[in-house]
Each structure stands twice: as C-alpha cells, then as structure tokens.
Amino acid sequence: MPHHDVVVIGGGQAGLSISWHLTARGIDHVVLERDTIAHEWRDTRWDNFTLVTPNWQCALPGYRYSGPEPHGFMRRDEVYAWVRHYADTFDPPLREHVAVTSVTVGSDGGFDIETTSGPLHSDQVVVAVGGYHTPTVPRFAERLPRSIRQLHSAEYRSAADLPDGAVLVVGTGQSGAQIAEDLHLEGRKVHLAVGSAPRVARFYRGRDCVAWLQDMGHYDIPIEDQPGGLGKRENTNHYVTGRDGGRDIDLRQFAVEGMALYGRMVDVADGTAYFEPSLGKDLDAADAVAESIKDSIDAHIARTGIEAPAEPRYRPVWRPESEVTDIDLAASGITSVVWSVGFRTDYRWLRVGVFDGEGHPCHNRGVTTTPGLYFLGLPWLHTWGSGRFAAIARDAEHLADRITVTACATAAA
C-alpha cells in the first residue's frame, strides 16, 4: 500500500502548521482532510462571529497576521480566508475530501491507515483534528415540545434563520454568551440559562487584557504548573467578545436591557423548563474571576513600574431579586432553543491505546506513549495558548523536532 513517513490527519491551522515544519525539513508526509482546508471556520461559526483574541496574536509558522487592524478582531470569513491563504504560502502535500476511518498499529511498528480513498501506511501519525468533535445536548432536550426548534451552537448562523419569537440560549461559555449577544442585538427576546463559565474584561488600564496577560507570560505557563494541573483541560473559557472592536460581555447589563436570566437548566417537563437557583452565585463567580485578573494586572504594573492610567473597578449594574426556577415555554413565547453546552470527543477511528477512561488522549505536550503517534491543536495541549493561534506554532515546532529525530533514526536503521 502507499507509504509516507508521516501522515497528518486534519487540514486546519494545526495540521497546516506541522506540515509547514515537515515541508521545510524535507520530511515526506501527506495531510489528509475530510472536507476542505479550514472548513470548520466557515461551517461551524455564526455569521457575526469574531475572534476573541486580537489579530496581532494570530501567528502560524512562517506566517503572521499582516492586515490593517492588528488590534482588531477578524470576523469568521476573514479567519477562514487567512488560514486558507496560509496553505498557499508553502503548498503543503494536502489531500482534501479524504476521511480517515481507521488507524491501527501495524505489524512493523508503523501505522495502518484506512481512508475513504484507500489504505495508507506511515511510520508516524499526527492527529490534528482539534478537541471538539460531536455537539452535545442533554438527554432532557428530547422532552421539549415538538413545536420548538432546537439547534446546537455549531449550527446557529443568525437570528433571521430562527422562527419568530423568543429564544432560549442554554450555556454561557464563549459561544453561548456571544450568541445571546448576537440575538439580543438583533432585537430578539432572549432567555439565557447561565452556567459557571468565568468572564474577563476586554480592556483594562489602557490595554486589551490579552496584551497584559501576554506580557505577564500567562500564555506560556505549562499546564503542569497551573493550579489544578491537568484538570485545567476541563475548564470553560472566559467569555468576552471581539465584536465591534471588542468589549466586555456583561450579562447583568443584558438583564437591565431586557434579557431574562436564569440559573443552570436542569430539566424539561410538560412544556416547562426548570433551572437551578444558581444565577446569583454564578454571576458573582464570573465577576470575581474578571476582578482577579485585574488584580494580577495591577500587581504586574506596580512590580514593573509601567505607567498606565488608573481605572475604577467594575460595579454590578444588576442583581437578581429572586431566583426564577421554572418558566412555561409557550407562555414565554419561546420558539427556539440554542444549546451551547459543549462537545464531546470522538476518536473511535483511532484504535490505539492512548486514551483515558473518558476518551481523552493521554499525552505529554502532544507526545503519546505509542511511539510515533502525536496530537496537535488540542486545548491546553501544553499551555493556555495551545488551542488557539497564540501557541500552535510553538507546539508544532516541538512535535516537528520529535518527528525529525524519529524519522532520522528510522532512515538510519
């Protein structure tokens, strides 16, 4: 069967980044993409999506953002075009519309790979398919009335695509909070089930908080040195937005403007949605995280003697007078529900024993205990920046060094 020294699975920014290094080093490889380059940016983001990290932080190996707004935030189509153009800069050995259906360890120690276009063999494999594979919804979603349209955040595109009426958004991670904002700005009545996600201010003391955190080295701290260690991989990202030049997402302000907020959604029965009385606690916890980040920035400014303008701290503009724990969906005019409660991994095609009891890959900075098998582009692969543009280049170079050593040893043998 056809053989390559390295097979890279996934043609997004992670797969292209490792391909750039392998191409530069003259290592035989192929990149397999089940759809088209960077299609996730085009196919699973809503129309008004923007990055939450500034454009200056967008850097891949040999390639940086060079547009007119380094402190702005690329929109969905701009990100898609930016990643696609990256491939044009070095012409990777890419095969689109080729899905991998099985990877097993071969009898010679390499890997046997089954694809929709036939079998392959390789000495090494890089899995660069991200960590968000299958959208999840709670089991009680099946008890929603049939008249209500349900969709996952990965399917949401715009308010105009939804039936007339109010919308219930469930979850306040980055996607849920931003989709609630999108619907709110479009004039829709929004009911929001708030989760335990933290938040962060967009700007503080004259700069984007991302810029402060970058200078403070937060994106470079290995996960092993983080509070909670490997448990960080389960944490929800802070909600904030890059829309209209970037701003905070303040759920309390949304409430002042008419958005209905509830605690975590826990059940549906006979047309009634039920919520935990957790709203006040979770809003306070999100604010506390944002303020703790400001504390760290203040300490950094004082320690380094940087001149930065003073800024008053956030004061809550709204608090729930009482916790609403159930609503009649029909009486509330709710015709749509957007589930923004995450994804689960799906590595059933990767038939190699490198997973924990919950199906997550076990690795050290992307290197597994199976010789020649690597992961790239996962959240918290090594640092906070690993799952975003901020640190993919560094992670890819680390794996490329390991791959090169193994390839040279194989060739010598």
UniProtKB/TrEMBL annotation:
InterPro entries registered for this protein in UniProt: Auxin_biosynth/cation_transpt, CHP04046_FMN-dependent, FAD/NAD-bd_sf
Keywords attached to this entry: Oxidoreductase
Family matches, as Gene3D superfamilies: FAD/NAD(P)-binding domain
Database matches in SUPFAM superfamilies: FAD/NAD(P)-binding domain
Keyword match Oxidoreductase: yes
MF terms in GO: flavin adenine dinucleotide binding; monooxygenase activity
Pfam families per UniProt: Pyr_redox_3 (PF13738)
Superkingdom per UniProt: Bacteria
Name assigned to this protein: MSMEG_0569 family flavin-dependent oxidoreductase
Species: Nocardia aurantiaca
